[in-house]
Amino acid sequence: MNNMTPQKWKRIAMAFFGVIVTGLCIGSFQKANLGADPFTCFVTGIANIFHSTYSVFYLIVTGALLVAVFFVERHYIGIATVINLFFTGAAADFMYRLLDGWFPDPSMPIRILMMLFGIFGTCFAASIYFTADLGVSAYDAVSLIAAYKYKLTAFKICRIVSDSICVIVGFVCHVTIGVGTVITALFMGPVVQWFNTHVSEPFLYGSEKPNEMHS
C-alpha cells in the first residue's frame, strides 16, 4: 500500500467508475429495447446456433477471448477485468429494475433517450477505464491489441471492424438488429477516441502529455 501513488488511486477509481457506468448503460440499453450492443448480438447469435442460452455462451466466448488475450497481451488483464466480471451484470440489473419501476411502459421518446444514454454513456465509460489502463474486458481488448500492439490501424477503425463483424454474425444467426446496434457498431470507436483525447487523458494526466497509450 505504501507504493500506492495518488495517480494509482486515481486509476483504480477510474476503472471502477468506468465498469459500473458500463453496467448501468447496458441496463438502459436493455430497457430501451431498440437493439443490443454488438458483442451481445454476437454472443446471442452463437448461442442460437447451439440452441443454448446467452448466459452460457457469454461465459464460453468471454473465457475463450480472455485466454487468447492472456497469451497475446496479458497487459490488458487487470483490476478492471475482475471488476468487470463481478460488477457489470449487477449494475445492469440494478439499472434495468430502476428504469422498469419508473417507466414500466415507456413511450418511444423515452426509449430513444434511454438508448442514447446507453450509447454515449458506454463510450464515456469505456474511455475512462481504457485510459485507467488497469485491464479491460476480453472483448474490448481485441480492438486495443489490434490498434496498439499490432498497429493495424487507428483504434476507432479497429473497433468499428470488430463491432461490425459481431453485428453481421448476429444478423446471420437471426438475432434482431435494432437502430441502437447499428449506431453502436459504427460510432462507438470514434466516440470513445474523442472521449480519450478530450476527457479521460486530460483528467488522468493533467497538463502532461501521456506516452502513447498501451504501447
Quickly describe the structure:
This protein is mainly α and 215 residues long. The chain is built from eight helices and no strands.
Describe what this molecule looks like in 3D:
With 215 residues, the chain is mainly α. Helix content is 77%, strand content 0%. It is built from 8 helices and no strands. Helix 3 (54-73) packs parallel to helix 6 and helix 7 (155-172) packs antiparallel against helix 8. The chain is globular and about 50 Å long. The two termini are 26 Å apart.
List the helices and strands and how they pair.
Layout: H1 6-32, H2 38-49, H3 54-73, H4 79-102, H5 108-132, H6 138-149, H7 155-172, H8 179-205
The number of helical segments is: 8
| Helix/strand order, N-terminal first | HHHHHHHH
Structural class: mainly alpha
- Specify the helix fraction band: over 70%
How would you state the average pLDDT, rounded? 86
Q: Give start-end ranges of low-pLDDT stretches.
A: none
Q: Strand share of the residues? A: under 5%
| Rg estimate, integer Å | 17 Å
Strand count, sense and closure of the main sheet? none
Distance between the termini: 26 Å
Tell me the total number of β-strands. 0
Q: What key attributes describe this structure?
A:
215 residues, mainly alpha, 77% helix, globular
